[in-house]
Amino acid sequence: MAVPVEWYLLLSAAMFAIGVMGILTRNNALLFLMSVELLLNAANINLVAFSHQWGNLTGQTFSLFTMGLAAAEVAIGIGIILVLYRNFSDVDVTTPTSLRW
C-alpha cells in the first residue's frame, strides 16, 4: 500500500512553516541556517513526491541540485558566521547594525 502524495505535501508544508517561523523569530545566525535548510528540505520532499507520482526522474534530479545548493549555502553561511563571531564576539544577527569598518 503506497502512501498518498497528500501526506508528503502536508509534511512538506509543516516543515516549510517551521522554517519560515524559525527565520522570522530567531536572532541567532546558526538557527537561520538551520531554518533555511528546513525550507530547502521541504522543497526536496515536494520534488521527490511528485517525481515518484508521475514516474519520471526530473524531480529527483532537481532535488540533487537543491542538495548541492544547500551544501554551498552552508559553506558560505558558516564563513559569514565565523566573521560575525570574530568581529562582534556573538552570533546574534541584530548586533552588527552597519557595514562600516
UniProtKB/TrEMBL annotation:
It comes from the Archaea. Coiled coil: none annotated. The keyword Transport applies. Keywords: Membrane, Oxidoreductase, Transmembrane, Transmembrane helix, Transport. Its EC number is 1.6.5.3. It comes from Halanaeroarchaeum sulfurireducens. This is NADH-quinone oxidoreductase subunit K. It is an enzyme of class 1 (oxidoreductase). GO terms for biological process: ATP synthesis coupled electron transport. The chain crosses the membrane at residues 7-24, 30-50, 62-85. GO terms for molecular function: oxidoreductase activity, acting on NAD(P)H. It is a multi-pass membrane protein. The keyword Oxidoreductase applies. The lineage of its organism: Archaea, Methanobacteriati, Methanobacteriota, Stenosarchaea group, Halobacteria. PANTHER family: NADH-UBIQUINONE OXIDOREDUCTASE CHAIN 4L, NADH-UBIQUINONE OXIDOREDUCTASE SUBUNIT ND4L. Belongs to the complex I subunit 4L family. GO terms for cellular component: NADH dehydrogenase complex. It is found in: Membrane.
